[in-house]
Amino acid sequence: MSTINNLSDNAQLVKAHLCTIVNRVTHQNMSELPAEGHLVKDLGMDSLEMLELVMECEKEFQVVIPDREWTSITRIQDLIHAISRQLPGRTLEHAA
Hints:
This protein is mainly α. The chain is 52% helix and 0% strand. The N and C termini lie far apart (28 Å).
């Protein structure tokens, strides 16, 4: 799988931080996240890890991902989009 390219500056920073969070939650050691990576199929995450991932992302980026939204997040790119669209006008340094 290719890595995520052509993202906004905030989305690129989100992606970099997200890799660390995914590694922590899944106990993996990935250097990059696959662009179209599926959180369950490709990373082997279960529902508890998904919830933990969302909670860690909300804490790390100081955003809120509503239940109805996070339950529809299936790919890494979906999660990056859900986070980065809440950061317009904010730099990631202020969000982290």
